[in-house]
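Worked example (supplementary).
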Amino acid sequence: MTLPDLDDFSERAYYVIRQIPEGSVATYGQIAFLAGAPRAARAVGTLLRRVIENQQDDVPWARVINAQGRISSKGDMPRAERQRRILQREGVDVSASLKVDLDVHEWQPDHGFWAVAW
DNA sequence: GTGATGACACAAT
DNA sequence: AATTGTGCCATCA
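After joint prediction of all chains, the assembly is encoded as:
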């Protein structure tokens, strides 16, 4: 696999998101941190919109949720429901209020991953 | 270049 | 528990 463009935050973020295994979820902040911009959680959301628009099906956008373990629905409930459906199909338990138990499903990147320096 | 925007995060009410 | 305020920062226009 080709490593992402080191100067492009979005490419690094996509790379990180692709590492999230099925059955697990990660938070926006977690992705931002691992992509080398610890405080860019908000920007991660911006990127994910683009992922859906451009149909970048190689990026598992549904596995990214907010720090409260909740699927972000901000003005787009249909998308949230769609995300819930996908997660449940992957084996992630999502409550009726779109909440996921992070203690159970939060992705724990392995050591090798942490060693990556952009 | 500059300012607005938003799938965020966190602390303080 | 639910709101509100503040900081943040990659994108976009």
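Two points are worth noting when inspecting this output. Helices of chain A lie at 9-18, 28-34, 41-53, 77-89, 102-105, 111-115. The CA atoms of residues 64 and 114 of chain A lie 18 Å apart.
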